[in-house]
Amino acid sequence: MRPDMFGERFCERFRRLQDSTTPHSWKHTENVLTQAYGPDWKQKVQLHEILGSGCIGQVYKGTATDDSGIKQNVAVKVIHPNVRGPIDTDLELLRFVVSAIENLPFNIGANLQWWNLKGAVDEFSQLLKVQLDFRKEAENLERFNVNFKNDPHVVFPKSVKGFIAHPDVLVETFVKGIPISKFAVEHKSDTALLHKMCEIGIDTVCRMIFYHNFVHSDLHPGNILASLSDDGVPRFVLLDVGMVTEFKDADHDNIIDILANIVRRNGRKAAELMIQDSEKKMSPFLSNKLAVLNREEFINKITYLTDQDRDMSFFENIGGYILYICEAAATHHVRLNEAFASIALAVKVQEGVALSLDPKCHVWETANPIIVRAEMKRRFNRFFSRISDEILTFKFRNMLQEDDKCFLD
């Protein structure tokens, strides 16, 4: 939550939805675990206190025993009863509202269609529905652990062997940590440590977005713990990875190129890439009515934005900048890629976490170099991919020529 944007009272009220909703009954938990692991599940795992209850399910601290009798602390997530039906209903209502908005009279709806609200709702729907199957979260945990296996500063739980993930139950390792807000208070005198944690947090999210293309999409403070290892290494513990974002390669390449050009203050190139992406996506429906209006004026607006960003603070003001870009896109019929807003939201949420640790931090100091390196890496990969294709084509032609010679001989 962002108290700097919405106010402390508002954030405190809605923070309860993160991990303080009304827990479901013990009877439901027993029934679910029996379905998942059989009637003798209590011989394999013992549940203790409830660690938290969110919108989808609740989490218990427990102890699991493997086949050799070795015990370990675990966290057991159990889905709430009857949670799937209401979510489907809410999503249908959301789609209806978007459809109504896009059909508003006096050309209001026609302009708003360029914000791609329908695409944003479809993406949100997909993100939300995968949370309703804990098997997918187990897969996500495995992938995050691979992505950050060599990073001592970032920790994810792991699925516990012997407990195959079930749609309604997930048994994972218990990782120690305290809420990020509490960590900031307890270490408020150690400004160097908090600044280091701030840099780690920004770096982690930026690598998810720009290197891995696999982003934790539910990084509210309830899912972020902090700790110090036995040898004093600061660590983030990231939980609840059921909701992730992964973009198509073409969309990911496009967004990285756009943001890299904004960082370099090349507004013209960024705007041209937005237009190219819009025309590509709208080509099946393209007509004079849907074509980009006043192309050069749109390019000038994006160029003005980057020219004004003299202190390279795009990510410090990303909320206002995204609104400006959306308004320009609606005016000039440029269909924005839904990935653009998703990335902006992920950065904005992480900025809130960073500011809670170090109010003086600058997101761009960490984010901008990562974006530029990601763009260079992708250019390098595309270049060598093209060279490899040309070499293979050359070899294939030589093989054909050799076959022709053999045939003639």
The spatial strand order of the largest sheet comes to 1-2-3-5
User: H/E element string?
Assistant: HHHEEEHHHHEEEHHEEEEHHHHHH
Largest sheet: 4 strands, antiparallel
- Please report which band the strand proportion falls in: under 5%, 5-15%, 15-25%, 25-35%, 35-45% or over 45%: 5-15%
Given the helix and strand composition, which structural class is it? alpha+beta
Count of individual helical segments: 15
- Helical residues, percent: 55-70%
Mean pLDDT: 81
Stretches where pLDDT is under 50 for at least 5 consecutive residues are: 1-8, 13-18
User: What is the 3D shape?
Assistant: globular
Gap between N and C termini, in Å? 77 Å
Number of strands: 10
- Cα-atom Rg, whole angstroms? 25 Å
Describe the structure.
The protein is of the alpha+beta class and 409 residues long. 57% of the residues lie in helices and 12% in strands. The chain contains 15 helices and 10 strands. It has helices at 3-6, 8-19, 26-37, 84-102, 108-112, 117-130, 134-147, 180-186, 191-212, 249-263, 267-282, 295-308, 318-332, 338-357, 363-408, and strands at residues 45-53, 57-65, 71-79, 154-155, 169-173, 178-179, 215-216, 224-228, 234-238, 244-245. The strands form 3 sheets. Strands 1-2-3-5 form a 4-stranded antiparallel β-sheet. A 4-stranded mixed β-sheet has the order 4-9-8-6. A hairpin with a 3-residue loop joins β1 (45-53) and β2. α9 (191-212) runs antiparallel to α14, α10 (249-263) packs antiparallel against α11 (267-282) and α10 (249-263) crosses α15. It is globular, with a radius of gyration of 25 Å. Residues 1-8 and 13-18 have low confidence and may be disordered.
